[in-house]
Write a structure and sequence with these properties.
Strands 1, 2, 3, 4, 5, 8, 9 and 10 form an eight-stranded mixed beta sheet that branches. A three-stranded antiparallel beta sheet has the order 17-18-19. It has helices at 20-26, 85-96, 186-194, 241-248, 282-290, and strands at residues 16-17, 36-39, 43-49, 57-58, 62-66, 71-72, 75-76, 99-105, 118-133, 139-147, 153-156, 176-179, 206-208, 212-214, 216-219, 236-239, 252-254, 259-262, 268-271. By secondary structure, it is of the alpha+beta class. It is elongated.
Length: 296
């Protein structure tokens, strides 16, 4: 079944279903068995949270969702693979900003789950992902999902054009919702000033009109649950947008002596650009590396 991102017409938030087949027939969640509907090329559009994995954490507006694979008889018996279609689909939706339909089942956390059957609980955004050793001792992949309606969102209403919409008229417009998370930190600005906008990984500097330079502050140990990294200079890198995405997704990580490692080949590819007034704490580096590979 083709992916449909967003709400399904006729199935508002709070809709209840007794069986998985009803979810599938409604198009709310297509698979009859899998908890994730997605793949690496299109992304994921829905998940079911129903107590299938011991490491899931449900906080209502925030869900730490365990990926697919490696289970037998509801016990983890081998490592999960990020390239599994469902897991890769969630990564794709994180990168593309797709919203995911979340369905909770009766076997999930009692505080947030229906007493029976399944309930559609609205749209969530995939904020980040990481790996760790799960409760059964095998490496699992987890995804932090945040309820879309619990975030600050910019909603821009644009009136459609009602005149001649031929080749000489304006392009018709429609209402859109823009989602963004913006962190402004004096600490981040300090780090960026020290490096004068140069990316610490590729040394690129992006100049924009007006004589300004653009760079991004990347927290090494991510802030917020479940990472809880601090907003301090020792935990921030100055990166270009490309390297920031690669770093956040595990395609780049650092050794304790600040060598840059390719997350796909696990080969060293260079050294981090440093500044004598900007110390990087190895504890944060180790924490970030541990999200993607086993650490000593």
């Amino acid at each position: 079944m083709a992916k449909v991102f967003g709400h399904i017409e006729g199935h508002p938030v709070g809709s209840h279903y007794q069986r998985r087949r009803e979810l599938s027939e409604a198009g709310v969640h297509a698979p009859l068995m899998s908890g994730i509907h997605g793949n690496s090329s299109e992304g994921a559009d829905s998940i079911v949270v129903s107590g299938g994995y011991r490491d899931d954490e449900d906080y209502g507006d925030v869900i730490i969702y365990t990926g697919h694979g490696g289970q037998e008889n509801k016990r983890q018996v081998r490592d999960q693979n990020i390239d599994d279609p469902g897991n890769a689909g969630l990564v794709r939706s994180e990168l593309e900003g797709n919203l995911i339909r979340v369905i909770r089942g009766a076997k999930g956390d009692p505080e947030y789950s229906p007493e029976s059957g399944f309930r559609y609980d609205g749209l969530f955004r995939v904020e980040s992902h990481h790996s760790k050793l799960g409760a059964d001792g095998y490496r699992i992949w987890q995804f932090r999902l945040v309820a879309a309606d619990s975030e600050g969102r910019d909603e821009v209403e644009v009136q459609p054009f009602h005149g001649d919409e031929g080749v000489h008229g304006p392009v018709p417009r429609q209402s859109v919702t823009i989602q963004r998370t913006v962190r402004k930190s004096a600490v981040t600005q300090l780090v960026k000033r020290l490096h004068k906008g140069h990316c610490q990984m590729c040394s690129q500097i992006l100049q924009v009109p007006g004589g300004s330079f653009y760079s991004e502050g990347a927290h090494i140990q991510a802030i917020g649950h479940p990472y809880h990294g601090p907003d301090v200079p020792e935990n921030i890198l100055c990166l270009c947008p490309n390297c920031h995405v690669l770093f956040d997704c595990g395609a780049r990580y650092l050794t304790d002596d600040l060598r840059i490692v390719d997350g796909l080949t696990h080969q060293e590819i260079g050294a981090l650009r440093t500044h004598q007034k900007h110390r990087i704490d190895a504890r944060f580096v180790c924490h970030h590396r541990g999200r993607w590979v086993a650490v000593d």
